[in-house]
Batch of 2 targets.
Target 1
Amino acid sequence: MRPYAASVFGEMSALATATGAVNLGQGFPDTDGPEAVKRAAIRAIEDGRGNQYPPVHGVPELRAAIAAHQQRFYGPAVDPDSAVVVGTGASEILVASLLALVEPGDEVLTFAPWFDLYAAATALAGATLVEVPLAGPHFRPDPAALRSAVTARTRVLLLNTPHNPTGTVFTEGELAALASVAVEHDLIVISDEVYEHLVYGTARHVPFATAPGAAARTLTVGSAGKSLSMTGWKVGWATGPADLIAAVRVSRQHLSYVSSGPFQWAVAEGLALPDAHWRQFADALQHQRDLLCDGLAALGMPVTVPEGTYFATSDVRPLGYADGWSFCRDLPHRAGVVAIPHQAFHHDPHGGEPYVRWTPSANAPPSSARRCTGCGTPSADDPGRAGSGQDVAGTADDTVRPVLSSLTSTTTSSPSLTSPPSSARASLSPISLCTRRRSGRAP
Ligand SMILES: Cc1ncc(COP(=O)(O)O)c(C=O)c1O
């Protein structure tokens, strides 16, 4: 596991701390999920539900709510007793699934760029991650490339839609084509759909399990961290055929055994929130996405506008950089902002070279509120944030201010970032724009 000791998030977070940069690299909500869900957790604790070890595969109320959620949004019925497993976030479910379903020496096929856990979890299982590029700038899956990457050792196809980091939402047609590869080669599919409710515009999330031939071979993974903006609660789940769920239950119970006791009841209530809630949730995120993408485009970078997820991608070549790593290592010094290079999500050293991942401030109120010039956070004296405890400082250097304004509010041109990197580097010193900092592990 030595190759997985360090992560891009550790390096970039350290850089953010050292330079006082605003972190547009990490992807999690700025604000907590629904009040009703928080109150449900408090009630559960007070009522003594889940304060001691809850049932090992998930409390019946949550398993029933997950089954009802899948049926409500996607159609097929799910048996809450045999077809659902709850775990410590989608992360544990993914690790448990790979430990359960692959043997040392097997190959796990996935599209690159991938969520960083996929590489580490595949290595934990003693298997090899084989990557098939999702080529920029459109990042659409190529079923022919996938098919040609299958070998006699391929056991699992690990999919992710909506896709981190590209924001691609696989279409029904794409999923059908991928399903035909899985059927043809008898692959088990782990479909990571944690961003299922973070889908924008005309895009629609379609579970892979609904593609022809897929249901009997697919585990579908969800997360309350993403769907309910409660990333610290670590409640995740999988649904799927009873034999695959039974296998995951075996390995998962020897990892954390049980987790998140009272939060499981709260998540059960959250998954039953009315349709209006889910629409508003996606609309708020879409607003943030649009601000971010407009700002990035105004800097002179081609932007791949995401159809889903927290993430947007830009191509840094017009700013004078050949690759994302060098851009991201300079950016905190030059503009007080942290972003993440796609290269960190590839094994291929040239994979994703010119692309950088950015995340907007999820769940923040619309731009009518007064904002910190640096990070877009409403000012401390904004009535909407009174008493929030989030302090905002503005020590922006006037040269850099327009860059960050354009990243986080509306479209402002960016003289400093579009100037040659070396001269800009020499003339800009690190600045502290905003004392509000993010913490924790990043997706
Ligand atoms: C694609 C993807 N899958 C899974 C996870 C893990 O989700 P959780 O926080 O529920 O463990 C994340 C984020 O962390 C993610 O981006």
Target 2
Amino acid sequence: MTISTFEDKPAVDRQKMNLLGLSPEKLEKFFKDMGEKPFRATQVLKWIHQIGVDDFDQMTNLAKDLREKMKSIAEIKAPEVVSYHESKDGTCKWIIRVTGGDCVEAVFIPEKDRGTLCISSQVGCALDCSFCATGKQGFSRDLDAFEIIGQLWIAVKAFNSFGDKANRVVSNVVMMGMGEPLLNFDNVVDSMGLMLNDNAYGLSKRRVTLSTSGVVPMIDKLAEVSDVSLAISLHAPNDELRDQLVPINKKYPISLLLASAQRYLDKMPDVRRKITIEYTLMDHINDRDEHARELAILLSKLPCKINLIPFNPFDQSDYRRVTKTALYRFRDILKNAGHTVTVRTTRGEDISAACGQLAGTVSDKTRRSERHTNKHQLQPIKFVMS
Ligand code: SF4
């Protein structure tokens, strides 16, 4: 099998409009500009996102001359899959090369009642959370919409190509991979629009979750245009500690963050909806009983569920995983205070796919990564895309 690289493609191809990341509205405009009826957009959306077609010749309900015209000005081009890895627990990870040569990662976590795809929104991340492998890589750039939705397109197409072997279906998408999604707002919103659109992936808004470290003004902006599920990466019960773990807290402290989360919920028509609070537990950092008690009080007025995540160590990390005893004590204090609490099971650790371990390959423009040595080296086990 030949794995082509971006550099192999002739320059003329790169100037074509890539239809993969176009929102339904932009695709309609594309056809309108061609003098075509808007319903062509619906047809093409279905071909691309529901059937996984990237060849205009396969779009048999379009006239041949229209297909030829489209071929001359447009393309459907997903980012390149560099390698595919499967964990012994069934977790799947794709390393995906994006335009310019950097790589991002997407991870699929199969569970009994769902299959969740965790996708990246940026190449690296500028926010430098102290417990995050992506943060250590520095930041290169925002992903284009086709590079974001392309991760879902690649996963769905791969599972279809496996046949029914493992019965893997992407039922949920979380924007929790590399990057801060709210700092790549337009491309993330366009991509989530495709995830929700019935002519594309048709996922319910409850099954698409955007996770943010707390870019407060953009949470308000998101509420204006979308009602997907919102997760807040909190990780600390007070500003003093959160300033150290999640540096953006110095700009948008916890009180502002939780107020914006409440405003987000207030805009939702469904009063039963809740914010997910993510709290990564690190040994002797944020896992003490007093932290749990402080957190319980802090969140007492916000409709939320708390997801406790045992820290997943990576090569350059300064932290250790919470002990089981501390984890369950922490959980029980929150539960006894009346909170809904789940503990995230660590998945895909053997392929560095666990939460907080995604690193990719980043041409770091922040030069932050020069302080670290990247020792993440994976051996691919098989390719799934041709
Ligand atoms: S935790 Fe999220 S926001 Fe923080 S550095 Fe990692 S990717 Fe960026």
